[in-house]
């Protein structure tokens, strides 16, 4: 198993949670202004990982969860047959490692998809702080609940839907996540390669390519490499409507 790369400081200057543009998405969202210093006291900021480097590895001791500050992260597990199964993609403002809270070891491996900056929250200090800040504890419960919901939705997506529905749902999810970060919801660069998309959605790489081509021919998207433009959001929503209906039941 690959070993986690030692942390490296991105800069001798420590960024402030007060000033971070992602504070409305990350843990500071749940903390009152006068308590932010207490959160900053435990966070280790400015860790940089290059593409392909591991933030943590499956089955190694669980010591921290991580917030993506810039870049993107892929999580995966190694199955009993020794194959990699991609389990998620994380963008700026999202927390990685929440699925391991309450466990002794990490449930998955987290790897940088590109040059990525993270903030580290040591779990022992975070648990101590949540005991003192009820609003932070409530927010953590909310985030863990979202993790469970995402797992259920993924299981449903993989078990009942066509390739077109799966890919449309993924593109719409990315669109929504980019919009929450005040970025364009219709023009963006995919952080993951198509083989990772195929692995995540339980499809062959050739199937992913065919569906992208079909969507382009139907005027739903325009794609060149990893650059994607969503031309018809409503059309994609119609393709994925069955998935959305099932998730809302």
């Amino acid at each position: 198993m690959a070993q986690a790369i030692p942390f490296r400081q991105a800069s001798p200057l420590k960024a402030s949670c007060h000033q971070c543009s992602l504070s409305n998405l990350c843990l500071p969202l749940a903390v009152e202004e006068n308590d932010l210093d207490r959160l900053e006291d435990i966070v280790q900021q400015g860790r940089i990982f290059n593409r392909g480097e591991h933030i943590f590895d499956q089955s190694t001791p669980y010591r921290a969860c991580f917030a993506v500050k810039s870049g993107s992260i892929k999580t995966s597990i190694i199955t009993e047959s020794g194959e990699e199964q991609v389990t998620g993609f994380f963008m700026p403002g999202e927390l990685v490692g929440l699925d391991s809270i309450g466990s002794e070891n990490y449930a998955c491996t987290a790897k940088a998809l590109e040059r990525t900056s993270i903030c580290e929250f040591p779990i022992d200090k975070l648990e101590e702080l949540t005991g003192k800040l009820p609003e932070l504890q409530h927010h953590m419960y909310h985030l863990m609940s979202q993790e469970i919901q995402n797992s259920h939705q993924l299981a449903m997506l993989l078990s009942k839907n066509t390739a077109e529905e799966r890919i449309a749902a993924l593109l719409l999810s990315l669109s929504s996540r980019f919009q929450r970060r005040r970025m364009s919801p219709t023009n963006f660069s995919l952080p993951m390669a198509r083989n990772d998309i195929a692995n995540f959605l339980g499809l062959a790489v050739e199937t992913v390519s065919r569906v992208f081509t079909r969507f382009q021919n139907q005027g739903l998207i325009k794609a060149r490499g990893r650059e994607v433009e969503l031309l018809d959001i409503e059309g994609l929503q119609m393709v994925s409507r069955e998935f959305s209906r099932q998730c809302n039941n």
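Residues 1-14 have pLDDT under 50 and may be disordered. The longest strand covers residues 64-70.
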